[in-house]
Write a structure and sequence with these properties.
The protein is mainly β. The chain has a domain of 159 residues: Immunoglobulin-like. Helices cover 2% and strands 22% of the residues. It is built from 1 helix and 12 strands; from the N terminus they run βββββββββββαβ. The strands form 3 sheets. Strands 2, 3, 4, 5, 8 and 9 form a 6-stranded antiparallel sheet that branches. A 4-stranded antiparallel sheet has the order 7-6-10-11. Strands 1-12 form a two-stranded antiparallel ribbon. It is elongated and about 175 Å long. The N and C termini lie far apart (127 Å).
């Protein structure tokens, strides 16, 4: 049975950028707390998978108080940038089982891998978390950081690597889980006493500082500074800090400052109504013809006189004398005799 199996695909959520650093919230499954804590480093270097021309190696483990980051290096004799860009370990909705895959198998049987998309959540998840992120490198070498939560139990933690496109089959490598948990105590906090992030995401000037357990990086744990003046020295603009409202006498409570009333807006000047145009008078009807008027008689039509017809005179015939000689008849033409050949 293969270690990598299909699973649900969810779109990841991205945090909103902030302009001020707040205190560590204590939700280690959301990502490495690199802004607040310096991790302990385990300089473990070992190959996790290799083929004839490609090697995937572990370069070390950064151990946080409740999580760890695997620092991986990918080395190849061929170019690693052909046909792809960015990280070699991708979280996809539809996983590519021929690409580079990384996974962890805990001693109790729970697992996490890069074939699924791990979504940061406000509540603690019931399964381990693994998120891979690409780093720098060259054309033949790339670094990757793989965040893993939680820390392993006592026993062997198995790292699983597979890259079929490069000829690396599924390879299992065991590391000591007890040594990883022991190194978590060496991680130190950088900024103890920072105020917590407010619930609505807006920074608050006067907030009670919160102390965090564990050692402080470079110095011993210091006392938590007070966020306001002491009870013996009340501020000028309010009651003593830390006293419940019910214990303050009515005469000591500050009077609320009335809010200024808004200035009423001027009323708009009414627009004058236009003067209506005069209506045109009605058209006058022509006078009616009285019925007693005499009817108009028919006018006689003029008759044109007929045109005179022209008279044609016959031509005179020439007179023939009685003793006139008639004309001689024309000679008849003799037919041509045909000769036999």
């Amino acid at each position: 049975m293969s270690f990598f199996t299909d699973g649900p695909r969810e779109r990841p959520l991205f945090p909103v950028r902030e302009q001020e650093l707040f205190g560590y919230e204590g939700r280690p499954w959301t990502g490495p707390p690199s802004d607040h804590i310096v991790p302990a480093l385990l300089p473990w270097a070992m190959p996790l998978g290799r083929s004839e021309r490609t090697i995937v190696a572990l370069r070390g483990i950064e151990v946080w108080p409740e999580a760890m980051t695997l620092r991986l290096g990918v080395y190849s004799r061929d170019s690693l940038h052909e046909g792809r860009s960015g990280s070699l370990i991708d979280h996809r909705r539809i996983p590519d089982y021929n690409a580079l895959l990384i996974g962890v198998l805990y001693p109790d049987g729970s697992r996490a891998s890069s074939e699924t998309i791990s979504v940061p959540s406000a509540s603690e998840p019931d399964q381990p978390v693994l998120r891979a992120q690409g780093g720098g490198g060259t054309q033949f070498h790339l670094d990757h950081q793989v965040f893993v939560w939680p820390l392993p139990q006592d026993g062997p933690l198995t790292l699983v690597v597979q890259w079929l496109d490069r000829g690396i089959k599924e390879t299992h490598t065991g590391v000591d889980g007890a040594a990883i948990r022991a190194a978590a105590h060496e991680a130190g906090e950088l900024w103890p006493g920072l105020p917590k992030r407010p619930g609505n995401g807006v920074a608050v000037r006067h907030a009670t500082a919160v102390s965090f357990g564990g050692s402080v990086y470079g110095e011993a744990p210091a006392a938590v500074p007070s966020a306001g003046p002491s009870a013996a020295e009340p501020p000028a603009d309010g009651p003593p800090t830390g006293v419940p409202p019910a214990a303050i006498p009515p005469h000591a409570r500050p009077e609320p400052i009335p809010l200024p009333q808004p200035t009423p807006l001027p009323q708009p000047t009414p627009v004058p109504q236009p003067t209506p145009l005069p209506q045109p008078s009605g058209r006058t009807q022509p006078p009616a013809v009285p019925s007693s008027a005499a009817p108009v008689k028919n006018v006689p039509q003029p008759t044109a006189p007929p045109l005179p017809q022209p008279t044609v005179q016959p031509l005179p015939q020439p007179a023939v004398p009685r003793n006139a000689v008639p004309p001689a008849p024309l000679p008849q033409r003799k037919p041509r005799a045909t000769t036999a050949e």
